[in-house]
Write a structure and sequence with these properties.
The complex is a heterodimer of chains A (240) and B (235). Chain A has one domain. In chain A, 78% of the residues lie in helices and 0% in strands. Chain A is built from 12 helices and no strands. The mean pLDDT of chain A is 94. In chain B, a hairpin with a 2-residue loop joins strand 8 and strand 9. In chain B, the strands form 2 sheets. Chain B has a 6-stranded mixed β-sheet, sandwiched between helices. Chain B has a 3-stranded antiparallel β-sheet with strand order 2-1-4, with helices on one face. Classes of the chains: A mainly alpha (240), B alpha/beta (235). Chains A and B meet through helix 1, helix 2 and helix 6 of A and helix 2 of B.
């Protein structure tokens, strides 16, 4: 059997060796850096502690990363590479597991990039005379990492479930729009359980442990469920 | 050795493949001949685990494709060369496949050279001509140095030089004891390349055997025989 680590390595290559993905990844890193302008330029509106610099880096980096992972999932069907992939490894469930693992590796790298961007920004700003307090702890750091991984995983899972790049991207943004509606007071109670914009926000604020159940439910709904649907569809679907 | 036994596949009301049975022996090139829509590609997809048959079975060296440990080392497959990622370069396409097949990256470069794609290796597949995609598809099939080759319309889009090249390559492969199954609707090409023919029409095998067995004594040429066998065939 092809070693699982080999499959993961191949999927990592496939995610980044496509031209569109390279541009998106570059834009992803640039957005993390650009987002740091907000705490820098608005010192009176944004708390000047390290936590808020981390928060803005996380928000920046999680704009486009979900799309990179989404496209890695849909390409097999939209670009029809499933034909090559599944003749090299016919155990389709293993390929999907390798794709998920590769997405996780990329998310971890993104966490490191966002952390580095925030750290460099804080150091540079302090050097220039800005007073930035410590203000973060390990729980907050874990929430920061989980926020980036979780937000990206939603894109990946939608891609896995829908197979079609255009449909998956539209669905991803429509979902984000619908989540916006859940912010209105009448629907807030529901939103607190299904709106990842809200629940993952708690992670980022370091409030994750107080809302663990709500975060878990929303993650199950928008990550675990579409991944399960995607696995079933991938295993059953005829490749043509 | 390829064994296809009583393979059937239905799409709604259409019987795409009906009770298809044939074998391909080591050291031979089998030409799988049929009109467009006759069931060639569906049969090949069932052989390679991409389509689940309604009935029957297909094995390669006694094993179902989906049970092969590392298929690329046993069977090289080229089914549809429009099924390549347009945003990936030729070299990256081969390198990822080499990684999965567990062959050194150097083997990918070697095949780029052998298929005449070395000069275009760092171009995206989206910029390739049909013939170039076809060459890349062949390189993918040859990557794991498999004993069995399954090729759907390999001559499609190749120039005369390319067609002569692939004919030599397949002949050489069979001479060294390899098994080749190639489909085509180009009669002249099949006649020049294959040892044995399997003719499919409207999902059914209508004739199989060597060219001499099929044509001997009929006074027909391959085209006349093919047309008479498949008359009324197309759905």
């Amino acid at each position: 059997m092809i070693p699982f680590a080999t499959l993961v390595r191949a999927e990592l290559h496939k995610t980044v060796d496509v031209r569109a993905a390279r541009w998106l990844l570059l834009a992803t890193a640039l957005l993390a850096a650009a987002a740091e302008a907000i705490p820098l330029v608005f010192p009176h509106n944004v708390t000047q502690d390290r936590a808020s610099y981390l928060t803005w880096a996380a928000l920046g980096i999680s704009r486009l990363l979900p799309l990179v992972l989404l496209m890695a999932m849909t390409a097999e069907w939209s670009q029809r590479t499933a034909m090559t992939t599944f003749t090299l490894e016919p155990r389709r469930g293993r390929v999907l597991a390798a794709k998920t693992a590769a997405a996780l590796v990329i998310s971890v790298l993104a966490v490191l990039v966002a952390f580095a961007v925030a750290t460099v920004t804080v150091l540079a700003a302090s050097q220039a005379g800005r007073h930035i307090t410590g203000g973060w702890n390990w729980a907050q750091l874990a929430g920061f990492a989980l926020f980036i991984a979780g937000a990206s995983a939603v894109g990946m899972a939608i891609g896995a479930a829908l197979h079609n790049t255009a449909a998956a991207i539209v669905s991803y943004f429509v979902l984000a729009g619908l989540f916006g509606l859940l912010m209105i007071p009448a629907l807030e109670k529901v939103g607190d359980w299904i709106n990842t914009g809200q629940t993952f926000g708690w992670l980022l604020n370091g409030d994750g442990s107080r809302h663990a159940a709500q975060i878990a439910v929303s993650a199950a709904l928008w990550i675990a469920l579409p991944l399960a649907v995607g696995t079933l569809r991938t295993v059953r679907r005829e490749v043509r | 050795m390829i064994s296809i036994t009583n393979l059937s596949k239905r799409y709604g009301a259409v019987n795409a493949v009906r009770d298809v049975t044939f074998e391909c022996s080591p050291g031979t090139i089998t030409g799988f001949l049929g009109a467009n829509g006759a069931g060639k590609s569906t049969t090949l997809r069932m052989l390679t685990g991409l389509t689940r048959p309604d009935a029957g079975s297909a094995t390669i060296g006694g094993k179902a494709f989906t049970d092969l440990e590392n298929p690329a080392r046993t069977v090289g497959v080229m089914l549809d060369t429009s099924a390549l990622h347009v945003g990936r370069t030729g070299r990256a396409t081969l390198r990822v496949a080499a990684m999965m097949a567990g062959v050194p990256a150097g083997r990918a470069d070697e095949l780029l050279e052998a298929t005449g794609l070395a000069g275009a290796a760092s171009r995206r597949v989206g910029t390739y001509s049909l013939g170039m995609r076809q060459r890349l598809g062949l390189a993918l099939a040859l990557l794991g140095s498999p004993a069995v080759l399954v090729l759907d319309e390999p001559a499609n889009g190749l120039d005369p030089e390319g067609i002569a090249w692939i004919r030599g390559l397949l002949r050489d492969h069979a001479t060294r004891g390899g098994t080749v199954l190639l489909s085509s609707h180009l009669l002249a090409e099949i006649q020049a390349t294959a040892d044995r023919l399997v003719i499919i029409s409207a999902g059914r095998i209508v004739a199989q055997g060597t060219l001499q067995q099929l044509l001997g004594g009929t006074g027909q040429n391959l085209e006349e025989m093919f047309l008479s066998l498949t008359a009324g065939g197309p759905r």
